[in-house]
Amino acid sequence: MLKSDSRICFIFNPSADRNRSERHIDWLNREAKKRWTHFEIDITKKSDNVARLAADKASQFDIIVACGGDGTVHQVINGLAEKDTLFGVLPIGSGNDFVKSLNLNKTLPECLDIIHSQKTTSIDLIRFEGDVSGWCANTIGFGLDGWANYYASSHRKLKGHIVYVLGAIRAAFTYRGARIKLTINDKKYTDDYLMITTCNGKWEGGSFYIAPDADMTDGLMDLLLIKKISIFKILTYLPRFRWGPSPGMSGVETKACSRLRIRSNKPAAVHCDGEHLGSSISKLDLFVVRNALKVITPKNY
Q1: CATH topology of domain 128-290
Q2: CA distance 55 to 39
Q3: Dihedral (C-alpha) 90, 94, 98, 99: value to the nearest 10 degrees?
Q4: CA 24 to centroid of chain Cα atoms
Q5: pLDDT band for position 164 (50/70/90)?
Q6: In sequence order, which residues have a C-beta less than 8 Å from that of residue 113 and are 6 or more positions away?
Q7: Which range among 160-169, 196-205, 230-239, 252-261 shows the weakest confidence by mean pLDDT?
Q8: How many angstroms separate the CA atoms of 78 and 61, rounded?
Q9: What fold, for 4-118?
Q10: Mean pLDDT, residues 257-275 taken together
């Protein structure tokens, strides 16, 4: 294998995969030596501002690789959005939803070979502002979705989609929705909603196929809207979302847009890419930024 002269920095989250990712560090060091002449592995600490670290490293390296799950991806892209630095992913988290939409849900050696090939695709990101601000790579969940993520994060020993299922069940019994005004592009809607999820990618929570039509290059974000429905219906729908929303789900709507405004009469929990943004959020403005991130992708993407 010919070594690449590209300068590459791996931002490695040892807390990913429920603190199990650390076992990959020695392997990564050995394999990186085979592929790159100039590389660096930065092992993060909980106190680190990873977005700032990524932004700093972007001025020194050609490629920044997020080594972790969706939370690590989220933090790194918040430092790389709208920069020319290439972005790669080694998916060693517990959910790894972002990579599925880009055909990057592969073995770690395969992902490292893809990064070495440097075939790139410019993807869209979602910019959000209001009570909180930042960049979204995969999904933003307001309401039931935000609370489900919050409760799922309390399960430290479990891993996989069961964690999100348990979080969603608990959220269904504790959050009963709010009166929300939505502006979707230029159209206004007011109703009682349980959940508003804005999607750049197709998957969430490890195995929930919530936005089958989402495309990270089409200039649109796909919306999954759930109005106030009974707890029984929520629990019935939950396992069905592994195959995506269907027309038979009453109270469930899907739309696509480039701009979204959310104004809620009650604050709610919100997550972005699986990262908890807060539990008292009532105002968000979201819009698509075209070609905001240069991602290294497989040749068949």
Answers
A1: Tumour Suppressor Smad4 (2.60.200)
A2: 17
A3: 40
A4: 22
A5: confident
A6: none
A7: 160-169
A8: 16
A9: Rossmann fold (3.40.50)
A10: 97
pLDDT band at 157 (very low <50, low <70, confident <90, very high): low
* CATH 2.60.200.40 domain residues, the chain: 128-290
- Max CA separation in the chain (angstroms): 59
Written as six digits, the tokens of 98 are: 């972002």
> Where exactly does CATH 3.40.50.10330 map onto the chain?
4-118
Q: Tokens 């069961």 sit at which residue?
A: 162
CA–CA dist 21, 91 (Å, integer): 10
Q: Which amino acid is at 301?
A: Y
Q: Both tokens of residue 275?
A: 């990262």
In our burial notation (b when 16+ CB lie closer than 10 A, e otherwise), range 116-145 reads beeeeeebbbbbbeebeebbbbbbbbbbbb
